[in-house]
Amino acid sequence: MQTKRLGWLNVLCGVMLLCMGCERRNEKELKRSYSELTAPDIMVKVNHETLTKQGFDRLVEERLALTTAQRQGTLTLKNVETQRDRIRHETMPLFISRRVMLDEAVKMKVSPGEEDIRAAESYVDKICSRLKINRDEYADKYKGTPKALERFIKEEATLRALMAKQFGDQLSVTDDEVAKLTQSLINANAQSEATNVVQRAALEAFREEVSATNLTQFVSDKTLEDAEKEIAPGIFVVYLESVDANEFFDDAVSSEMIPSAVANLPPREKSEVFDSEECFEFFIRLPDKDGEVVQIILSENDDEKSAKTIDLLRFYARKDLGYQVPSEAQFRGDLIRSKYESIQVPWVETLIQQATIVYPNGRDLFQHNHLLEGQK
Asked: How many angstroms separate the Cα of 235 from the Cα of each of 6, 238, 280, 309?
């Protein structure tokens, strides 16, 4: 069994930004802003194909509608505008990438077959289903006319045929590839577990050896708060000064909380070794500064909470966290993206460099949009 990514939009994720640095500029280009353009104004010309502001806006609104549908209508008005600006910034490179590939299909005399047409038809049906509209509504709102939709379907089919002719099975992912990579992660995780057994044993041994009567060596500015200090290979210490029990203690052991069992440790006593999310750790409570043994009260009731604080030393060894083994579908998607990035993206980049690309109204159409300033 082999899997291929069909939609051209998914294919082009890796080339969306490289377009902006590859175009050939025309000396007669103007410098206008997007808001100054009218519907028939040309935003970009790729070889002999043009994209007008009207066509550009339709592309933007279609992608915005798909994004909104994917998030099940949960976007706020502010988020919708943010997404619209992001999509505007990405749409020009996507159009350029699509056009240079279609021009390459003409040069290579690629014609889509029946299977390619069916796949393209199915792709459009899925879009309509997600947007909850029929084909006529889709054609009118996002393509302009029924003929424009027919042309879009033929182009989708052509791109599919082009990928097959240009790359064959190079962009395919086989069951064997998925199985081998899955097993490699499983093996790596087994090694991580073995490493963690050694890490915990080392921390347990250190806990037995450390003297609770000579703790001043661990209390200094070099170990205060987040300034960790490695005191043995792979073992670190942090001095936690004036810990507010009710703020930092929790019943659940985690990497961000001190276990509640530590709260009432007698001074100079060691806790057990805890297995937290990212490390193995134990604590030693330091003597109280005024000589009084503070009894900590842990409670959800503010009136019952203790206002006292204690000082602690935290000793820990980091875990080897290993890898999360994704589902087969996620694995296939990751492998496909990896192949496109390594095989198809350089090819598309070459096509862009060879194309004649002109911006009659300038390339910085969104330069006055503060939401995009950081993306240039």
From this structure: 50, 11, 10, 26
